[in-house]
Amino acid sequence: MEIDVHVKRAILHILDTGAGIPVLSDTLLGLPIGIQEYLYKHLTRAMKDPDIKRTQFVDPPSRFCELVQQYKKDDESFTSVSQEIASLLFDFMVENVGVPSADLLVVDFIGDGEPYLGVLKLNYKHSYIHYVDHEDGRLNDILRQPCSLPTEGQRLDEFVIINLNTGQIFLKEKKFEIDDKKEYYLSNRLVLCEDVLSEKQTFDIVEKTVKKIIASEYNGDIEKLNTVKRVIADDYESDSVIDMDSIAQATFGDDFTVKERFREEAAKKGLTQRKVEVSDNIESKIFKKQKFVTDSGIELSIPTDYLMREDIVEFRNNPDGTISVEIKNIEGFVPK
């Protein structure tokens, strides 16, 4: 589902630690059509990113949280608040050289009718441009640009977007070297928010855990793997959730020991909730095709919707331990 985004104002600050000081703008960013399009694409892509964590500020509040609250009370403070946020981030980056330099784009925007403050960290990318040197004749050369911003088609690595009505935070972050170990510095050091999993992390934990258990307890039973896919898809379509109890019951039935192992294995990886709300951000993962490769090298790719439909595809366990797959009601093949 496309998000309706309207940018009200934006400002850009340069946080290049190699320069020694931040270059803070005191003037709002101009918004010609090209820049509007750039902002729109990054904001809509960020809001739909499957790696976002939906979280809340914790108590006591961080300075970052206090600045957001200040802006909610006085929207004329946009420039000064953005400068303070940029300074907070820059000071942390100087002390922790593992955090990459970036430009910081702060945006006040409306998304589907809700007010948001977006803090987008545009980490520098390496790119190449042509260069024409006229000094000794004409030389066409290639120059490496070390401080290019992400293109409009690239996903951002880090951002914090706050719903100014509800206080909900949409956060995407990466681990960097902090005090000799890799950690999430945005959530743990600057923003200070509840530690939660992203929707993608939740889905991946469920998928990997259940595959591991089916492999060890049921010799990789294809029907059970298909059941997991179908249950996850059904729960998403009916209630927009990943339901751990539903998955465990449908897949492992009355085998209490295996069901408990499933929950314990998931909890070890950070997934302790029995039911997790998910959005259409991970719809493509839920409904992605299930791929199988036989021991003879034959590859099958089957849409999730068809896995439990025996009128289309049927998996049979043979007495000799082999598996037969029958694909039914085919009207034709399309080579790829």
UniProtKB/TrEMBL annotation:
Alphabetized InterPro entries for the sequence: Nucleoid_associated_NdpA
Superkingdom in the source lineage: Bacteria
Gene Ontology CC terms: nucleoid
UniProt-recorded name of the protein: Nucleoid-associated protein
Originating organism: Eubacterium callanderi
